[in-house]
Amino acid sequence: MDNEQPHQELVKCVLVGDTAVGKTRLICARACNKHVSLSQLLNTHVPTVWAIDQYRIYKDVLERSWEIVDSVNVSLRLWDTFGDHDKDRRFAYGRSDVVLLCFSIANPVSLRNCRAMWYPEIRKFCPDTPVILVGCKNDLRYMYRDETYLSYFGDRSPFVRAARKSDLVMPDEARAVAKELGVAYYETSVFTYFGVNEVFENAIRAALIARREHRFWMTNLKRVQRPILQAPFRPPKPPPPEVTVITGTHTKDMLNMFNSQCYTDLVLIVGTIRFSVHRFMLASSSNAFHRLLTMDISDMGARSSSESSMVSSTFGESTTADFNEDTECLIRAEQNKAPNRMWEQLKRRSSYQALPTVEPKKDLYRELHHPVFQSIRVFQIENGKHTYTQTQTIVSVSKLITPQAMQQCLKFIYTGAIDRECLDLQEIRQAAEFLELPQLMVLLSNTQANQSFMNDETIQHYSTCMKQNLEKYCVQDGIFGDITFELDDGHMKAHRAMLVARCDVMKAMLNGDFREAHANLIVLPGVTEYTFHKLLCYLYTDEIPPISADKCLNLLELANRLCLPRLLNLVECRVIEDLTRMSQNETSEAVEHCLRLLESVKLHNAHQLAEWCMSYLCVNYNSICKLSPRSLKSLHPDNQDYLREHRWPPVWYLKDYDYYQRCMNELNRELNNGKKDCTADDKGCLCFSGGKSKRSAVAAKSTLQTAITASSEHQSDMVSTSLFQSNANSVNQLDPEHDGADL
């Protein structure tokens, strides 16, 4: 043939088999030295034949056909054939050195045809040619239930369907056919590239050994070994399922809380405009507000509310009337008169609608020596609708801050952003400086310098700091809390505004006609401080701290009861992180937790965590059978069936590996016997020494070393021999409920 190199053995390899078993794909994978993608494999099959002219046309294909096997230069020529049974293939069989009889592992009919039709045809035209049985598409043994693989068949014709488990040919079945035919057996996959080079290397060895029997004088063929036993293919470990978390709505909820002004307890009077806000939000975001709202003003003395020049809102909501200077003049003019007469006059004023429906208690008032804050007033009112006591605070702000600037500062405190249409950024910057909002100052500086692309990092930094302060001051310290929860092991404070804004169930409970809407103390039976603390961390910060796997059930139950799906997902992520950390310690702790959580978390709709636990148990099924057989039997029968069905490594691999170990042990015994024969022959006369025994021992040793090397290359992470004993019953010991016949 053209372009042949000197001292090179030409080997003609013919591939035969049914249509669509993978002959052409196997040849292309070997000739092009690359695997085939899943989309290429699942395209509609078009019967093709690999043209032998490819070796003349493409130089790279020709060069890849040159190979050195056992120190012998070989030029491999691959011949493809049609899969139709009625075609005449005698031209392909002519002068063939080895024949690969191919079948599809996902098509048992093709295996039966190998025995009934193809092998007799091969022996008819090639009676002395070595034959190798090749199982193609062995990746379908684990890919048949892969979601990506199954998705390709969704829009296909009803005549094209995915492989099923009942269609798969197991290694022991194919090996039995190979034993009946008296040929070697190998498996390949062009998707994973498993066994592609190995099957052709051993086909070359079989061809060269057959050639050596006819050409015994060829010295370059004396070192050719027998075909090497193929190590079993272990399916890749299934990856753990991904856990998705619902996108949070924390920023949106904070904006709604700012706009709705529900349960506000602080009024900022800026000029003629009043802003109803929440003390815990301002104290957590600004050091200036924190010092102002937490200082003790009780030692300054109390005075009647009629002496105040400020008007508060009812129930924490903004008032409908604006601040009226005439009201202050009226109060000052009538402050020496009787209180009843004063209230009668105030009722006739237009601003009376902004006052509480009941006369408030004595309040605390203090003049402030601050460039921005002029005075502060704190008093108690009773909510007329829900009959609970609420603390109201009124702070008057100087003219150094305009109402527009205060509006943007408050919006930044709640949401971390300002309106883009703001024109006077200098006023907002001055207000941010007085209110000690450094992140807002940086944001405005970037905007003025046309570096708005840096604002995302600034907003993220503010959000992180704000959440940390909310957790510190509001969750842990309970600052300005207006509602108390009685738990099984203690009490914790919270804020109605945050609960209503972040949880729909809490909103219905606190705003509806329920008993909890009229009480300052709410009893939550079955909830501990540990669980409720995690819940408040989520409501205030949209995140939860780390949680251990043994304490997650109560939080999952509470999240499911309050209809908080994002909290449910966050708990699942935290528990999976904890279980992953346990699994790295090589102990059975993670397995025990998964067995305990598997069925419990399903009751609380934590389906992603249940799926992860099931996947982890499937991967560690052998360890469960050894360490926790009772816990395994205590599971629901459906879960037990699922674990047996999806166990890893699968049963067919364990049986194939057991067979491989027995063959390697027999080969090792042959090597040891060869060494003994060599030692016995060396004791006699050199003229009659067993040279043949020496050569056979050396050949056996070389074959064993090559087999071990091939095994380590294909199964670098194979299960240790101590786990699977090399006897026929070793596989059965891994499943306490199934005997060898079931396997």
TrEMBL record:
Entry-linked SMART domains: BTB, RAB, RAS, RHO
Domain BTB: 264-294, 481-548
Family annotation (PROSITE patterns): BTB, RAB, RAS, RHO
Parts forming coiled coils: none
GO molecular function: GTP binding; GTPase activity
GO cellular component: endosome membrane
Lineage: superkingdom: Eukaryota
Record protein name field: BTB domain-containing protein
Example GO biological process: melanization defense response
UniProt organism field: Aedes aegypti (Yellowfever mosquito)
InterPro entries: BTB/POZ_dom, P-loop_NTPase, SKP1/BTB/POZ_sf, Small_GTPase, Small_GTPase_Rho
PANTHER family hit by this protein: RHO FAMILY GTPASE
Pfam families (alphabetical): BTB (PF00651), Ras (PF00071)
Keywords annotated in UniProt: GTP-binding, Nucleotide-binding, Repeat
